[in-house]
Every structure is written in structure tokens, then in C-alpha cells.
């Protein structure tokens, strides 16, 4: 009987031990699982915190970038507006310049036509010019371009050349000009002093005061010279008056109106 109780007691003790062991095992697993959960939760919270901090930093960078881009966009809009206004002003200016160019081209054509007319007339008139005048404009006459040279000679240069010749022409036409040179009349060559009254008329006399005459322009061969010994004394006196070696006085000289 005692042995039965003892056996029973042992069985109960063993069962209790197993129960305690089982309970301890279960409790250990729960604790371990809880620790794992807590560890994961802490890690997750840390990750969330880090990502949140990174997001705050990124947000600040993004906001700064947005602000910068908005400033840049505003600046670009101003630049575009200014460029459009400048382009508009440029187009207007170009239109004005195009209009002025058209006016200038038209004026240049008119001026070119006028210059060519003057050049042609100068060439024709130069055939009747006396040597005393021609030698003073010889350089300008050589500058009158031929047909091939007209394309490469600026109209301004041609105009200046024409003006220079005409200025000398007007000057010669308005004064009495004295010239000394060889005069060939009637097959004889003599050194004579000639007084030109513009391009209208001239009188000449040689050094002896005996050979004299007069001349006038001819359309065919420059000037026609006619010897006239009867006016030698008057021409000599006329030369002296020009040189201011004698007082001026009235002299009757032969003359006629000539249209070359």
C-alpha cells in the first residue's frame, strides 16, 4: 500500500515537473518572440526616423530648388520679354533702314545719271579748252572712268572729280588768265604771251611786241588763232595792265561772240 502511494507520488511529481518544464519552455519562446518583435519594431522606428530626417532634408533642398527655378523662370520671362521688345524695335529699325536704303539707292541712281551726263559734257567741252586751262585739270580728266572702270569706281569719287573740274572751270571762266607758251599760227611757231578772258576770247603777243593776234574756241579743233599785227601794240599794253606795270585804261579790242 505504501509502495502504491509512493509510486503515485512519483508520478504526480514527474507530471508536475513536466508541466513546469513545459510552462517554462512556452514562456521562454514568448519572451524570445517578444524580444524579436521589439527589436524589429525598434529597427523599424529607427528606419522611419532616418527616412523622415532624410525626407526633411530633401524637402528643404526641393523647396530651395523650386524657389530657384521660379526665380530663373521669372528671369527668363523678363529676358524673353526684353528680347521680344528688342526684336520688335530691331524689326522697326530695320524697316526704317530698308526704307532709307531704298531712298539712298534711288538718290544714288539719280546722282549716277547726273554724274555720267556731266562726265560726257566735260569730255566734249575739253576739246575746246585752251592749254592754259587744260593742264590745270589734266589729272582730273584722266580720272574720268571709261565704260569698264565705271563698275569699280565709286560714284562719290566720280562726283568729287566732276566737282573739282567744274570748280576750276568756273574759276577760269570768271577771271583773266595769263599764259606763256608756244603758239603755232600760219605754219609758224612762236613763244607768245596769251591773255584768256575766260573761255570766250583770248589775245596773244610775242616778245618783240610785233607779232600778235586773237583766238576763240572751236568745236572741231580746240581754239582758232588768227594773227593780227594791227593789235600788237594794244595787246602789249593789255598785258602790261594785267601785270600792273602801267595804269589801267580803256582799250578797244576786236572781239566776236562765238558758239563752239
From TrEMBL:
Stretch forming the signal peptide: 1-28
Pfam families: DUF3450
InterPro entries in the record: UCP028069 (IPR016866)
Key words of the record: Coiled coil, Signal
Coiled-coil stretches: 59-117
The name this protein goes by in its record: DUF3450 family protein
